[in-house]
Amino acid sequence: MEINEKVVNEIAENMLSIFPMLMKNIFKKDEFTEEYGLGPRYMHILHLIDDFGPMSISEISKRLSVSAPNMTPLIERLISEGYVIKNSQENDRRISIIQLTPKGRELVLLHTNWLNQNLKKRLERLSHDEIEELWYVLKRLKKLVLKMADCCKQREGN
After folding, report:
1. What is the spatial distance between Cα 48 and Cα 46, in angstroms, rounded to a whole number?
2. What region holds the HTH marR-type domain (predicted)?
3. DSSP β-bridge partners for residue 87
4. C-alpha distance from residue 80 to each of 61, 85, 89, 100, 151 (Å)
5. Three-state SS for 110?
6. What is the CA angle 72-76-77, rounded to 5?
7. Radius of gyration of the chain measured on its C-alpha atoms
8. Residues 6+ positions from 95 with CB-CB distance below 8 Å
9. Distances (CA, A) of 30 to 5, 47, 105
10. What global pTM score does this model have?
11. Closest CA to 48 of 149, 155, 138
């Protein structure tokens, strides 16, 4: 397929519409926030660290497209609630490395289970063929987005 303005516009339009629909209609983010007190940005940070391992605040900021000054209070809250710890990098003490605590890993697991339960309810509305198609499309989408971003190699096993 040739990359032209129409194709780019349609891809952008679909991306901009599907992601909010997923969050609002499938994952019901407000329910988890009410139960555990952490909004989507906090959970994105925790899942990112869980998926890719300990990383600097600037790397987290880059991967989530949030400025470092805006990321700092988010990280500080996660530290104060015991979900992550901050260590200095051995070869450069100015760089702080953020990693999950056991409590943070437990919350990621709870969140993942919560997401899976919500998703299972929604998937029950689809046929087996539709579920298989969705599985394939999402797996392929993830691969393509990572390729487009040219970043974020997940740790082995993920």
Report:
1. 5
2. 8-143
3. 97
4. 19, 9, 20, 13, 30
5. helix
6. 120
7. 18
8. 56, 58, 88, 89
9. 36, 17, 21
10. 0.73
11. 155
Per-residue pLDDT of the chain (158 residues; tens, 9 = 90+): 788 898 889 888 888 888 788 777 776 666 777 888 888 889 999 999 999 999 999 999 998 888 988 999 999 999 999 999 998 777 777 778 999 999 999 999 999 998 888 889 889 999 999 999 999 999 998 888 888 876 545 444 44
- 3 to 6, 11, 17, 147: CA distances (angstroms): 8, 11, 20, 16
Token pair for 12: 């952008």
Q: CA-CA distances (angstroms) from residue 93 to 42, 56, 86, 97, 120?
A: 25, 12, 12, 10, 45
The letter for the amino acid at 126 is: L
User: Which residue type does 91 have?
Assistant: N
